[in-house]
Design a protein that fits this description.
831 residues, alpha/beta, 40 helices
């Protein structure tokens, strides 16, 4: 029982009065008489008919809501005829208005009917004082029974349509006031209780206010849904919110069959006491009733949203699920969502929800295995392992996750897995250790994880030797620094467990600076493979730590054999070149096919950077090439060509004493190089080669016996594309490099002219070249004639300076100029 303070007002006029209706008395609220008049007008049901027997005759009851800025009130107006006439003899209608604080009602879920009955017979208190009444909680079962009597379809349809607009109930002339009020109360019961803060209704509407949302009337009101009492139809097309809400009510109550289901819905809606600001809010609030069941259904089908699964447990909704099996089902789906942010909730609720079931553990293990062994292994799998340890089954969990690796794991998977084991080997993880010794690739990866703690590597290897004696023998040799080198057969045994195992072994050897014990065998092993993963081994060999100079040479040779680039060459060039060269040559001696691949790769690499400009690199290239030549065997021809081609980058390379020694040895092995070398260098020229460098190579070609045509062909096969100006500069530079002791200088001039003729024969280039040659000739000829004028004055004191021979040559030159200026010249330039 709750005692409630109620504000009140009496609206009417005195007997025999000719005045308008007014507030005759009030009390218990902060509303002024003016406020009360506005409230009554806003929710007026209209003008009652004078007769007292029609369906619309008084008494009427109006339900309303109003606020004073601080408190929200539920209003109830009872309008009925008095026994007094006014001054014109007309009957006077009195309206009693009551304002009840909403919070006082929602605390006990008081219904409008119970409120009406409590106020109906209560006498009005003295003016200015509040009314006090006692209210008992309304039972949901009673409201469910009332809905059944009125017809669930009518009540539910009216409730649904009221979410989208006004509703008018028509064709109900036999209904009495109590039945109409019961209907208005039943409609409100199928809405969230908080809807009472905006709910308004009337037992009859006779041209009254449009603000009354639900009312009985003879005819449907403007802008209102109509509910035919006799034939209640579903919400019209387009009223989607109403349609959805009605459908949800039907689903939740089984079409209203069974008062218990209806009472359960009413009980749920009573909990929603906050304001319903939008119609969609009502649907969401209604959905909360069996939300846990719908999430369970979706979880069974594997379709539950992750946010719903998380909310189920963070909001403790899982406790609404009837059976332990249902709880485990939803819990398992939350685990399967594989979000580490859920682990605190999973850990907190594990013992309550999942402790006695095996399925959650299996699911947690599957999630951990997916994070660990998937295509993008995640080191944060440790969060799952840590959660399992918190729950007391860390060893069993980690062992289970490790066992699910399968045969498709890669080096990164193994590294992440090994990191997990590394953190836990110093505690009692017996099951994990048993899985470890059955997984050799994981064992090897674990050893490499300990490379930052060398003292622990020996301890781990000793521990593993008791279970894996054959596999640990090679590691033992590396750790002990055995003088007995590792054999190809040893590496074959390691490689049988996968290339990752062999690479892990190389990493350990590198860290312990024992690569010298392993690389010879590894090179032999690699050379003996019909097929190898070149990309894998190229990247892994290049990343080995701290190799010595000999090992650097071997690694670079192997990288070249794998069609990769040099890794240590430049560093070794500034260090122990002899040791590097020795390691490089050791690989070459393994097999002829391997030697050919390595030397082809080296030749290709020499064309990728300007090694002749780096003294240390040039020295190593030349000494290595010379050693290859002395070593004998196939494959060195291309390397010789690559060294010769180095002069395209720096023609002065031949001045290097080491080059001279190499050149002499190369000529003995390949005599044809004497004529081929300049052409090789010309073919290797780059796009922006300096014409002066090109001229040096052309001059070498002339002296070596190359024809101008051969030089032209080599130049056109290179990347060099001279401009007209650049070509003319080349020709001039070639003449400047003519040795003063040359026996037949005219022959070299003719060679230059032949080279020019070859270029002028080109369709695209020749016309522009001829024009430029002519322009330059005229410019140069004028300049030299001016020089001649300086040395042959017009009035020489001692007679003519020119000899007779000189004068004859001038006459011949003048005649040639006349020929070019005449018809012969026109024929030449028209071609």
């Amino acid at each position: 029982m709750t005692q409630v303070r109620v504000g009140w007002a009496l609206h009417g006029k005195p007997r025999d009065s000719h005045e308008d209706y007014t507030i005759m008395a009030s009390g218990g609220s902060r509303f002024t008489d003016g406020d009360l008049m506005l409230i009554l007008a806003r929710f007026s049901l209209g003008n009652p008919p004078a007769d007292r027997d029609s369906p619309g005759s008084l008494p009427w009851v109006a339900i309303s809501e109003v606020g004073d800025g601080e408190v929200t009130y539920v209003g109830l107006t009872m309008q009925e005829w008095s026994n007094d006439p006014d001054g014109a003899g007309r009957p006077i209608a009195h309206s009693r208005y009551f304002a009840v604080p909403y919070q006082a009602l929602c605390a006990e879920a008081i219904s409008y009917q119970d409120l009406y009955h409590a106020l109906r017979g209560a006498p009005l208190p003295p003016v200015g004082t509040p009314m006090r009444i006692e209210l008992s909680a309304t039972k949901a079962a009673e409201q469910a029974r009332s809905i059944a009597e009125l017809g669930f379809a009518r009540v539910a349809t009216a409730a649904a349509m009221s979410l989208e607009g006004a509703v008018t109930v028509t064709r109900c002339p036999e209904l009495r006031l109590q039945e109409r009020l019961a209907f208005l109360d039943a409609v409100a019961a199928l809405l969230p209780y908080g809807a009472r803060t905006t709910y308004s209704a009337g037992t009859w509407h006779e041209g009254g206010s449009k603000h009354v949302k639900l009312a009985f009337a003879r005819h449907n009101r403007a802008d209102s849904f109509e509910l035919d009492w006799l034939v209640p139809a579903a919400p019209p097309e387009g009223a989607d919110i109403a349609g959805t809400y009605l459908q949800r009510l039907r689903e939740l109550t089984g079409e209203g069959v069974g008062e218990e289901a209806v009472a359960r819905v009413i009980g749920h809606l009573r909990l929603m006491t906050g304001p319903v600001n939008e119609p969609e809010d009502a649907i969401r609030l209604l959905d909360e009733l069996d939300w846990h069941r719908r999430v369970l259904k979706a979880a069974r089908q594997g379709r539950a949203a992750h946010a719903d699964l998380r909310r189920m447990f963070t909001a403790e909704k899982w406790r609404l699920l009837e059976s332990p099996e249902d709880r485990v089902t939803v819990f398992g789906e939350l685990i399967d969502a594989a979000d580490r942010a859920d682990l605190p909730v999973i850990t907190r609720l594990w013992n309550e929800v999942a402790a006695v079931h095996s399925t959650p553990f299996d699911r947690l293990a599957r999630v951990g295995a997916t994070a660990l062994w998937g295509p993008d292994p995640d080191r944060d799998v440790s969060a799952y392992v840590a959660a399992a340890e918190t729950l007391g089954f860390g060893d069993r969990y980690l062992a289970t996750v490790l066992e699910r690796g399968g045969a498709t794991v890669n080096a990164r998977n193994l590294a992440v897995a090994a990191a997990q084991v590394k953190r836990r080997l110093d505690v009692d993880h017996a099951q994990t250790f048993e899985v470890l010794v059955r997984d050799v690739p994981l064992t090897f990866a674990l050893i490499t994880e300990f490379l930052d703690r060398p003292e622990d590597v020996s301890t781990l290897v000793e521990r593993l030797k008791t279970r894996l004696p054959a596999e640990m023998r090679c590691f033992d040799a590396i750790l002990a620094g055995s003088v007995v080198p590792i054999s190809d057969r040893d590496l074959d045994q390691l490689a049988a467990y996968g290339t990752n195992c062999l690479y892990d072994f190389l990493r350990v050897a590198a860290v312990y600076e024992r690569l010298g014990l392993v690389l010879p065998a590894f090179a032999g092993w690699l050379a003996g493979r019909a097929r190898v993963d070149a990309a894998f081994w190229s990247s892994r060999l290049a990343d080995l730590d701290q190799p010595g100079a000999t090992e650097q040479g071997m690694i670079d040779a192997l990288l070249l054999a794998l069609r990769s680039g040099l890794r240590h060459f430049r560093v070794a060039a500034g260090g122990d070149r002899a040791a590097y060269r020795g390691g490089f040559l050791e690989v070459l001696r393994l097999s002829s096919p391997l030697r050919t691949r390595v030397l082809d790769g080296l030749a290709q690499q020499l064309g990728t950077w300007a090694w002749p400009a780096e003294p240390d690199s040039a020295a190593l290239v030349l000494s290595l090439s010379a050693a290859v030549g002395r070593d004998g065997g196939p494959g060195d021809v291309r390397l010789v060509g690559a060294v010769v081609a180095g002069r395209a980058l720096d023609p002065s390379l031949d001045a290097n004493p080491e080059y001279a020694d190499w050149w002499a040895a190369a000529l003995r092995e390949h005599p044809s190089l004497r004529t081929e070398a300049p052409l090789i260098a010309l073919r290797a020229l780059h796009r922006n080669a300096d014409p002066r460098h090109v001229a040096v190579l052309c001059a070498d070609g002339y002296r070596a016996g190359n024809t101008a045509g051969q030089a032209y062909k080599a130049l056109r096969g290179s990347g060099w594309r001279p401009t007209v100006e650049g070509l003319l500069s080349l020709l001039a530079e070639i003449r400047l490099r003519r040795p003063p002791t040359l026996a037949h200088p005219g022959r070299m001039d003719e060679w230059v002219r032949d080279l020019l003729r070859a270029y002028t024969a080109e369709d695209a280039f020749g016309a522009a070249l001829r024009t430029e040659v002519t322009r330059r000739l005229l410019r140069e000829m004028g300049f030299h004639l001016d020089l001649l004028a300086c040395v042959v004055p017009d009035d020489p004191p001692n007679g003519h300076v020119l000899s007779e021979e000189a004068r004859e040559e001038l006459k011949e030159t003048a005649q040639r100029i006349k020929d070019f200026a005449g018809e012969r010249g026109r024929r030449l330039w028209r071609r």
